Amino acid sequence: MADLSKHYQTYDLFLRKAKKEFESVIKNEMVIGGNIEQFKILKILGTGSFGKVVLCKRISEGDKLYAMKIMEKLNIIKTKQLLHTISEIRFLDAFKFPFIVPLQFFFKNNVYIFIVMPFIAGGEMFYHLRSMKRFDEDLSKFYAAQVILAFEYMHTLGVVYRDLKPENILIDVDGYVKITDLGFCKKIDNTRTFTLCGTPEYLAPEIILSQGYNYSVDWWALGVLIYEMAAGFPPFYAKEHMKLYEKIVSGRFACPPHFTKPLKDLMLNILQVDRTKRYGQLKGGSKDIKGHDWFKGTDWDGILNKRVKSTFEPALDNVGDTKYFESYGDIVLRESVNDEYADEFADFTLVSKKGFM
After folding, report:
1. How many angstroms separate the CA atoms of 347 and 352, rounded?
2. What count of other Cβ atoms lies within 10 Å of the Cβ of residue 355?
3. pTM summary value
4. Element (DSSP H or E) covering residue 170
5. Distance of CA 313 to CAs 117, 172, 228, 310, 335, Å?
6. Where do the annotations place ATP binding (predicted)?
7. What does the alpha-carbon distance between residue 104 and residue 75 come to, in Å, rounded to a whole number?
8. Which of 10, 39, 52, 207 has the most other CB atoms within 10 Å of its CB?
9. CA distance 119 to 97
10. Cα–Cα distance between 268 and 263 in angstroms, integer?
11. Given CA atoms 208, 211, 215, 219 in this order, what sign does their dihedral have?
12. What is the per-residue pLDDT for 179?
């Protein structure tokens, strides 16, 4: 416990400084830097309803690689994702934490919004979890510790994440995590929010029941993630969403026989429907989770400073290896002589006028 007490002191000091830095950045208008002509697109790394993520390099920087998220303004407006898109860009820019993907460049043209981030060659945790079937408890604990530290950072800044899942966690070349997709982040400080958002299997009961929620939903999602990492499947599952939600609200789940006793106990305390009993929400806050028997022996400061060697590092042939990403063919960007939705995107980076979801 002495080691934990020392960690709490040093980390609390770090978080207080981080909060001041964040508050100074988030209030300012962002500077748009760069344009698509400065980049060479190499291949598509991923695609979805949001748009596409491509591997690219900035021509002036030689072979340095980036991941560029390309979103069509038309699609952003049609799907009513303008505020979510603003949130993602603003938080990518304002967060400064080793386990959260940072923003490198942001710019737009007549048709698209471009978000440029570092290329994380190890790919999604989802890929590796499906490949290995499940992670052993040591690796699950290693990943979970990083998510806990990242959540402590976000919550100290007054931000709830709301979109934890293996697909939104990337693995870097050293085997450490990078949380991505910040579109559902919201600055709530000491208030509650009611927005229904997130992945069905990871939704907390209070979201489903429209009760209003705060950081409690992130700790619930952490429990789901730990369970899925160690089991290979989530604690609550059903093909139909309504049946899934019924299971989540009931809070009834079973742990696989191979779960150790400490892990089973941790799951019972985090996947707790009653928020007055849920770890992360009690008087001790996140310290109840970090001090739990399952995390006994965890070198929190060593992990924070990446001094602990991961038991899994992605096997990469070179810095541009994309073996952990699917192939999607070539990308063709649409062009327009008109600045589409110019009014909607005119003050795109101004927090005071647009706000956060």
Report:
1. 10
2. 12
3. 0.95
4. strand 169-171
5. 21, 8, 20, 7, 40
6. 69
7. 23
8. 207
9. 16
10. 9
11. negative
12. 98
Quick: pLDDT tens for 270-327.
999 999 999 999 999 999 999 999 999 999 999 999 999 999 999 999 889 999 998 8
Ranges of the chain with pLDDT below 50: 1, 351-357
CATH topology of domain 125-304: Transferase(Phosphotransferase); domain 1 (1.10.510)
Residue 69 annotated as part of some ligand binding site: yes
**Structural domain spans, the chain:** 27-121+318-354, 125-304
Q: Is 50 exposed, middle or buried (0-12, 13-18, 19+ CB in 10 A)?
A: buried
pLDDT of the residue at 354: 39
Q: What pLDDT does residue 348 have? A: 65
Q: Which residues of 321-342 are buried (b: 16+ CB within 10 A; e: fewer)?
A: ebebbeeeeeeeeeeeeeebbe
List, in sequence order, every beta strand (DSSP E) within 8-162. Answer: 39-48, 51-58, 65-72, 105-108, 112-118, 159-160
Cα separation, 300 vs 308, in Å, equals 9
Q: What is the pLDDT of residue 281?
A: 95
Q: b or e along 213-233 (b: 16 or more beta carbons within 10 Å of the residue's beta carbon)?
A: bbbbbbbbbbbbbbbbbbbee
User: Which residue among 12, 138, 163, 317 is the active-site one?
Assistant: 163
Quote the pLDDT of residue 349. Answer: 60
Class of domain 27-121+318-354: alpha beta
Burial of 305 per CB tally in 10 Å (0-12, 13-18, 19+): exposed
C-alpha to C-alpha distance for 266 and 13, rounded to whole angstroms = 27
**Amino acid symbol at 126:** F
CA distances to 5, 9, 49, 128, 151 from 156, rounded to whole Å, are 18, 14, 31, 30, 8
Query: By the 8 A CB rule, do 313 and 175 touch?
Result: yes
The yes-or-no answer on residue 163 being catalytic is yes
Q: Please list the helix, strand and coil fractions of the chain in percent, rounded to the nearest 5, in that order.
A: 40, 15, 45
- What pLDDT, on a 0 to 100 scale, did the predictor assign at position 31? 76
